[in-house]
Amino acid sequence: MKEIVDNVEQWRAKGERVAIATVVATRKSAPRPVGAKLAISESGEMCGSVSGGCVENDVVIHAQEVLAGGEPRLLSYGISDDEALGVGLPCGGEIDVFVERLD
């Protein structure tokens, strides 16, 4: 959380809402550990990481939906035949990411 605190404080000082995505579970060879965080501002700025770049764009889309009034959500990422050309983890691992508004 320390790696995102300064940015989050700056965004909130500007009156922006913020969503936090947190890795809550990993399986196999995951790129980031449980507890890794990505903060997303209402204007789309990001800091931190939940996967080292593999799924961040998709997480941001969900974070924007949460910031627009959607419910917090649990996202799961891995690699499958259907995901091979889309969003996934090429390392072969799996992660669960919880996205919520920071209140």
CA radius of gyration: 13 Å
How many helix segments? 2
- Counting structural domains, the number is 1
Low-confidence stretches: none
Strand order of the largest sheet: 3-2-1-5-4
Regarding quaternary structure, what we see is single chain
Mean pLDDT: 86
Helix content: 10-25%
Largest sheet: 5 strands, antiparallel
Query: What is the element string, with H for helices and E for strands?
Result: HEEEHEE
- What is the CA–CA distance across the termini? 15 Å
Structural class label: alpha+beta
Tally of strands: 5
Q: Quote the beta fraction.
A: 25-35%
Q: Assign an overall shape.
A: globular
Description:
By secondary structure, the protein is of the alpha+beta class. It has one domain. Helices cover 23% and strands 30% of the residues. The protein contains two helices and five strands, in the order H-E-E-E-H-E-E. It has helices spanning 2-13, 56-67; strands at residues 18-27, 37-41, 46-48, 73-77, 94-101. A five-stranded antiparallel sheet has the order 3-2-1-5-4, sandwiched between helices. The longest helix has 12 residues, at 2-13. The protein is globular and about 40 Å long. The model has no long low-confidence stretch (mean pLDDT 86).
